[in-house]
Amino acid sequence: MGNNASQLEKEIGYDQFPANEHYFGLVNFGNTCYCNSVLQALYFCRPFREKVLDYKAKSKRSGSSAGSGSNGSSGLGSGGGGGGNKETLLTCLADLFHSIATQKKKTGTIPPKKFITRLRKENEVFDNYMQQDAHEFLNYLLNTIADLLVAEKKAEAARQQQQQQLKEQSKGSESPPEAEIKTWVHDIFQGTLTNETRCLNCESLSSKDEDFLDLSVDVDQNTSITQCLRVFSNTETLSCEHKYYCENCCSKQEAQKRMRIKRLPMILALHLKRFKYTEAQNRHTKLSYRVVFPLELRIFNKTSNEETSDRLYDLVAVVIHCGSGPNRGHYISIVKSFGFWLLFDDDIVEKIDPANIEDFYGLTSDTQKTSESGYILFYQCRES
Q1: Which of 166, 244, 264, 312 could form a disulfide with 308 if both were Cys (CB 3.0 to 4.6 A apart)?
Q2: Which domain range does residue 152 map to?
């Protein structure tokens, strides 16, 4: 890896290489590119990386599992967590991020063996050597981390309450109702949608809020992300067998419904629905349509919420699917770091020209057989 590493440093330029930054490829453990590509994208979502490293710093785990030697192997074995603490997907992710961030070298390769081993133990979907869906993995990872953090907060709150009750010699007074616990995963990735339905008979409007950690949008040929988001919020008429039961009319009525964004997240993860199930073929086929994703994105289809009325987003990472179907092909990622772009293909890391990002928009026709197309886009809100 020595020659390859020095080559990347030459491409970036010794004088331009960011201080305290490291660019490390990840070893593929048999079709684990779906995992590697998502981990690289998340590592370069700076707010997420900082929180994971902060979690690592705060955890009182023994040095046996927290160490990180210059070759990247320490702390990445398949053993359990030290200090009596339970090993989780989050502790393994924190160990991996910490190992990358504390390398002596600027570039190189790391085997994320401990993380992959834990992932396969925790979820049988990933416990094989088949190609998996990168979006399913992202969703599982973020939800699992959020659940772990919520459980930790609840355990801490219970300990504090117990101590308080012991102090006051409480006579079993009722506990206050449990509030919804938010974590830093929610602070970074969670947005809110509003599902609005208007009865066309009585004109009453009902709305229901729905939280999301990533937003899935339909794709069309020769379109853009802005257009995909507009279509996402298009008004749909509910009629015939799809009529809406109106509480006001106490009967089924024709209605119009639409989905709008009520609150935007700090990092907007957009999933392009490129895999479509076709009954005729009894399988998922890939829509390799050309979908333009800009380096800057402004969201228009929002409710009139002043807090998020005018926010600009910068593209920071893209997970790209290469190939013809969900269970075949390959995943890579491109990320933005200190003003330039890098391509991560498992253990290979290269600097790329921003002009070449359009190569990942998708195909302009159906005659081409393979494509490298943007699949998950990570946009970070620009601070005003």
Answers
A1: 264
A2: 2-156
Residues in CB range of 283: below 8 A, 6 or more apart: 277, 325
Looking from the CA of 382 toward its CB, the CA atoms found within 13 Å total 12
Q: Is the pLDDT of residue 24 over 80?
A: yes
| CATH number of the CATH domain containing 41 | 3.90.70.10
Q: How far is residue 294's CA from residue 336's CA, in Å, rounded to a whole number?
A: 13
Q: What's the pLDDT at 310? A: 66
148-206 pLDDT, tens per residue? Answer: 999 999 988 888 888 887 777 655 555 555 567 899 999 999 999 999 999 999 999 99
Active-site hit among 199, 246, 330, 381: 330
Specify if 9 maps to a domain. Answer: yes
Q: What are φ and ψ of residue 74, in 5° steps?
A: -65, 140
Please report the DSSP string for 214-264 in residue order: SEEEE--TTEEHHHHHHHHT--EEE-GGG-EEETTTTEEE-EEEEEEEEE-
Active site residue 271: no
Q: Which of 33, 45, 199, 228 does the annotation list as catalytic?
A: 33
Give the CA radius of gyration of the chain.
23
Which two tokens mark 132?
């998996």
For residue 376, is pLDDT > 60? yes
